[in-house]
Amino acid sequence: MAKNKILPLVAGVAAIAVFGAGWAILKNTASDEAAVESVTVDTLDGDITQIDYNVQDDEVSLVYTDGEWQWSEDADFPLRQTYAETMVSLGQAPSATALVTETPENLADYGLETPSSTITLTNDAGESKTYLLGDANTHTGAYYLREDGSNTVYTMSSEFYSAFSNPLYGMIITETWPIVSASAVDEVTLSQSGKTLLSVDVTRTEVEAASSSESDASSVETTTETVTTYKASDGSGFVDADETATASWISSLATMSFASCVDYKASDDTLTSLGLNGDATYTLTVKYTSGEEEKTFTLLIGNGSGDGVYYVKQADSTAVNTIEGDTLTTFLGTTFSSLTA
């Protein structure tokens, strides 16, 4: 009988031991990385005038010149200023979410032996500080950080990590698609190799319409409405076009937008490789009204990228952008006969 009573007792002791070990691990983790009100990492005095960091294989260097942030390699790069301003705001006096340890046994435990990112901030006096970012804490989402030359490990918010995680082209100002309303479009021409594939002329006429008053059948009210008509051509003369099909074709222009910029200053070789200066290049010309001004928008349309987008370039720009493929594919596939049948 005594032997039977020992087994539950041993099992109970073992369970307590396992629970105790687990509690010790959780307790140590909590004490090491407990959130604190504010832990300030060693700061850099003066105004930050240069930011250097790496993200994946992209090394980014930004400098503050003539009152604005610029890419160090080319001041013409259209950099969105808010990205650099956020990095300065968070990097001027880095505020950690926790001080993890001042004497780490193994930096590799925090991803800091081989950091995922190195951030160097330089002030107007030429002084600099370098911070090393490691792994994310799987429980809190915060990232481990230490200053170069120090072993003290902190955790930083994901906001800090994200601010220094943008590749150069992730901070570019992408050009704005100019056609925002189909009602502003006056003429559209699509051509290839100098040959007109499809051209549509839009005419809007204000006409008066009479209607009886709802309250008094003998009273006639006059209103003005806009009647829109379309004529289409394949280069051999304009004929009446189907209103519904043509309106839909033109309306699709207002749904397009530039998805991203892939090269802000494309070379001739790049344009050739993307199909933007060859015989297969489409040329889209849109005449439209902006406010009281008549404008013309000319877009060169090149190859598809293979992942659902087309490479495009405005005729008066050096930048190559992308457009999502579905709408543009349908637009390019519309023929003269489909609008006039």
Structure description:
The strands form 3 sheets. A 9-stranded antiparallel β-sheet has the order 14-13-12-11-16-17-18-19-15. By secondary structure, the protein is of the alpha+beta class. It has helices at 2-33, 81-92, 158-163, 243-251, 268-273, 325-333, 336-340, and strands spanning 39-40, 48-55, 58-65, 68-71, 95-96, 98-101, 117-123, 128-136, 143-147, 153-156, 185-192, 195-212, 220-233, 239-240, 260-263, 282-290, 293-304, 309-314, 320-324. The chain contains 7 helices and 19 strands.
What brief labels describe this structure?
single chain; 341 residues; alpha+beta; Immunoglobulin-like; nine-stranded antiparallel sheet; eight-stranded antiparallel sheet; elongated; disordered N terminus
Look at the structure and give the mean pLDDT.
87
**Count of separate structural domains:** 2
- Strand line-up across the major sheet: 14-13-12-11-16-17-18-19-15
Count the beta strands. Answer: 19
Q: Given the structure, what is the number of helices?
A: 7
Radius of gyration based on Cα positions: 32 Å
State the distance separating the first and last CA atoms.
99 Å
Q: Per the principal axes of the C-alpha atoms, what is the gross shape? A: elongated
Q: Spell the H/E element sequence.
A: HEEEEHEEEEEEHEEEEHEHEEEEHH
In helices, the fraction of residues equals 10-25%
Major β-sheet profile: 9 strands, antiparallel
- Name the structural class: alpha+beta
Roughly what fraction of the amino acids lie in strands? 35-45%
User: pLDDT below 50 for ≥5 consecutive residues: which ranges?
Assistant: 1-36
